[in-house]
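Here is an idea for our session: we take a single protein and study its fold together. Which protein we use is up to you, so please pick one and set it down. Once you have written the record down, we can walk along the chain together:
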Amino acid sequence: MMKALKAINIIALRTALAGGTLAGVCHLAQADTGTASPDLACPGKPNCVNSLPGSDLPPLTFTGTPDQAWARLLQQLQADPQMEVIHHDAQQIDAVATTRLGFKDDVRFVLDAPTRRIHFRSKSRVGYYDFGKNASRMRALAARFEQPR
């Protein structure tokens, strides 16, 4: 049974690649390696916020070098007891925020060095509504980040 499922998956993958229907999967693979900007869009539920155009929240902005801003953000995240950084590289930081009630939210930051911006998304893992927790978290983080050192 497992061999049959594996064979079906391989055939489906080959067919999809030949037909060009795996664009989304290829994009995700690139995003994971940091070679492309990951998708920060929200899935249309009120338990997700981002800094993309059309959002109520602006991206983080900085005046120093991109390396300085990225290091400052990483330091702030690591000092926050409700945040756990699970991955970071020169272009992307992924973290898990845990609320006081134990709910976990996935938070992603992407450095856009040419525009001197850091875009983000904060998305609840479960439920439909987050009572504004993701938005308030990102507003508070932005306020701390914007403060002069």
Remarks:
- Residues 1-37 have pLDDT under 50 and may be disordered.
- Strands lie at 48-50, 60-61, 83-88, 92-98, 104-112, 117-124.
